[in-house]
Amino acid sequence: MHRVSRTWSARNRPPAASTALLALLLVAVLPGAAGCRETDEEPVRIRIATGSPTAVYHAFGRSLAAILNRELPNVEASVVVTAASAENVRLVGSGAAELGFTQADVLPPAGATDPAVVAVARVYDDLLHLVTTAGGPVRTVADLAGRRVSVGAPGSGTEITATRLLDAARLDEKRAHREHLGLDDSVAALREGRVDAFFFSGGLPVRAVEELARDLPVRIVDLGDWTEPLRERNPEVYVSRDIPRSVYGVDPVTTVANPNFLVVRADLPETLIREVTRLLMERRAELGAAHPAAGRMSPRSAIATAPLPLHPGAAAWYRAAKP
């Protein structure tokens, strides 16, 4: 777990109204907090389940943790490196993390989701990348037949989306050999010729793909024809999005995308999550400096979190903000 440094000073305390709100929060969260000095209180721990150190989730999580540490009194926020979406949902649901990021397609349909896991916001869309070498034989999904492809780390959203796409293409394990590698290992395997291509689902730009494209001629395979087959099997999850030439300096393509959510433990106090939501929305420019995908949120789009309900604290902030 990477520990994010914590800073606090009088000049960057929240305004009086927020401070009063947080005083109530600390009484609710910490037994015996009333009447105690700030220095005597146990800190409120917020662990943010992210993903690979080079993925968007991690950059977003680190920036969010730094903001929470700076802006909220007596909070200690840190990030947890994980295999991403599916593991993040499990960690939040089990109480091993307080916040986490996940793709929508990892979640079961409405009514079947874990009641312990609810949403703070829809944060941005993940775009599925199928990356190969520019001079290689893989130009379409069908070209993966008889070849080695990384479908993402076990328990990741990439693995779920890539597996669904390969199943829709009728490329089972016998027809396309699937490696289960995380982003960094997938990039290394493509460089070294141990795989012919790899999938990764992330917000634009994916830094590891950006760096790979600077070092090695690559091709991003067009996946636009696969949005509808995936939607037929998983209604209301997938949409088509473009990856323009400006992102990686390669030919533009259309691909499959699905929403990302910031999820939270349902039992966390409403006052705390209202403040987390406020900072998530009010510090979008700072979050966007950590990664452009993190700066694309808006209160209006953030409330679209189906199949997950919003945490009451998040819902209260959005109602007050009238997105």
Automatic annotation (TrEMBL):
Xref: NCBIfam families: TRAP_TAXI (TIGR02122)
InterPro entries with a match to the protein in the record: TRAP_TAXI
Protein name, per record: TAXI family TRAP transporter solute-binding subunit
